[in-house]
Design brief:
Order of helices and strands: HHHHHHHHHEEEHHHHHHHHHHH
Shape: globular
Number of domains: 2
Oligomer: single chain
Radius of gyration: 22 Å
CATH topology of the largest domain: Neurolysin, domain 3
Number of helices: 20
CATH class of the largest domain: Mainly Alpha
């Protein structure tokens, strides 16, 4: 067993290391890389992606996987490592090396075009690169889809096992309950948010975000936070997790909640058990499950009354004189305002999933070539008006607000909604063991993190996502927990 497992493990570790290096390059490209270095970075990424692909599809790795799979008495974790390694390799063997290199370079080129077009506010400056990327994504989906749809092939990268035929009814049932509830709140008197729209010093906002990040349990010995155009979590390994945030001087929640959101991702990354490091199961079993952690911290904790009962005095220290006339209840009502906002990441918990539904439907149409890239701004604006009653004032506020498509992340957006569904179910399960509100009010976040670490973070991708969630929550994937959470919380806030 030692020789066969050792050969497999060495290859598996190498794949993990290559992925970590690519993660570092991606983080640097969006944070520290000078503008003039972006072209070279595209070549670096393409070359490294090609090398990783070569190693992944090497017949010797396939032989090592099968030899390891045939070993007797594998542990549950080892069986999962073989399962995930085989799954990754099977998909990679369907993609030619030249395609992998072209895709890596085009992702970098398209991301640069997106950043430039956001500055010029011209979709025309983004369109050619996005069209080329879409051609490659369609080609990728056709290479991978087998008996499924193109979208199934791309969705499987982020939510293994999920299929369009199951996802659409699930999201449809959510829409049926969410739309009328959202409309009821939108028609109700809106809370005053003026306290959040003052000019808040950028450096003080960033310092406040670091304070909250540390309180929640993020380990700065094994991670860091920086600034980027679009907040994200990356890095190289559980021992080196990189978060980013952004600061808007005229809207206090932008930096705070971007940080708290990414903290949820970062805590998950830092929490994988040491014996899983450098293996194929050192990660979340699905992006929906990963997103459940960020949404849990951002919304369940961060937009709660106990959070502001604890942090309002702290915030007053960072912003002297600016928050003296407001109490914790008013702060919670302000940060939980339900409104027709064009920006997904700044939207409220209630309307957020309407933003996701818009993107989900559009990217299905894009990958199935029912909507052309050239028509995206018009179609986007029409659906924004249909779903949210708002027309974006420009394409930065509209179709160019998200980084995802510029990086080729099609099939990613639905995982945000799945994360919301999971987060509410996790909250119900945790409340059976912990007095969550009391802990948050006291600023005692360690028991909450320990609960998540033991049940979710430490186990990595050993169980499949829905299997793990059934174990943790006792429920299948459904919408009832989430809608009950929203109706209880916002019914009280709005008196409806």
């Amino acid at each position: 067993m030692t020789d066969a497992w050792g050969a497999f493990e060495a290859r598996m570790n190498e794949q993990s290391d290559l992925g970590g290096i690519m993660g570092l390059l991606g983080w640097d490209e969006q944070t520290m890389c000078p503008p003039g270095g972006r072209g070279a970075r595209a070549h670096h990424g393409a070359t490294l992606a090609a090398i990783a692909h070569q190693r992944l599809v090497d017949p010797a790795y396939g032989e090592a996987i099968e030899a390891a799979a045939a070993l007797p008495d594998l542990t549950v974790a080892q069986q999962a490592m073989v399962r995930e390694a085989r799954r990754s390799r099977d998909k990679a063997t369907k993609l030619p090396e030249a395609f992998v290199r072209a895709m890596a370079q085009q992702r970098s080129t398209t991301n640069q075009a997106w950043e430039h077009a956001r500055e010029t506010k011209r979709f025309a400056d983004y369109r050619p690169a996005l069209e080329q990327l879409m051609r490659l994504k369609v080609e990728e989906a056709d290479l991978l889809k087998g008996d499924g749809t193109r979208y199934d092939a791309l969705l499987d990268d982020f939510e293994p096992g999920m299929r369009l035929e199951r996802l659409q009814p699930l999201l449809g049932s959510l829409r049926d309950r969410l739309v009328p509830f959202a409309q009821t709140l939108l028609d109700a008197p809106a809370p005053d948010v003026a306290v959040l729209e003052q000019g808040f010093d950028r450096d003080r906002q960033y310092a406040f975000s670091l304070r909250v990040l540390e309180d929640l349990g993020f380990d700065f010995e094994h991670g860091r936070q920086d600034l980027s155009t679009h907040p994200f979590t990356g890095g190289t390994a559980p021992s080196d997790v990189r978060l980013t945030t952004r600061v808007w001087e005229d809207w206090l929640p932008a930096c705070l909640y971007a940080t708290v959101h990414e903290c949820g991702h970062g805590l998950y990354e830092q929490g994988h058990a040491r014996e899983l490091w450098r293996t194929s199961v050192c990660g979340a079993p699905s992006l929906g499950l990963h997103e459940s952690q960020s949404r849990f911290y951002e919304n369940v904790i961060g937009r709660s009354l106990p959070f502001w009962e604890h942090y309002l005095p702290v915030a007053r220290e960072f912003f002297p004189g600016q928050l003296d006339g407001v109490d914790a209840m008013a702060m919670q009502r302000a940060v939980c305002r339900v409104a027709r906002t064009p920006i997904r990441v700044e939207s409220d918990e209630v309307t957020y999933n309407l933003h996701i539904l818009l993107r989900f439907e559009l990217e299905v149409d894009l990958i199935e070539e029912r909507v052309a890239v050239a028509d995206l701004p018009e179609v986007w604006n029409a659906r924004m008006e249909q779903y949210l009653g708002y027309t974006p004032k420009d394409d930065v506020e509209g179709v160019m607000q998200d980084v995802h498509w510029s990086e080729g992340l099609f099939g990613y957006f639905p995982t945000y909604t799945l994360g919301n569904l999971y987060s509410a179910a996790i909250r119900e399960a945790m409340a059976r063991d912990l007095q969550i509100d009391d802990l948050v009010r006291a600023g005692e976040f360690a028991p909450i993190l320990t609960w998540l670490r033991e049940r979710i973070h430490a186990v990595g991708a050993v169980p499949l996502g829905e299997v793990l969630m059934r174990e943790v929550t006792g429920k299948p994937l459904e919408v009832d927990s989430f809608m009950t959470y929203l109706e209880t919380k916002y019914g009280a806030l709005y008196g409806v």
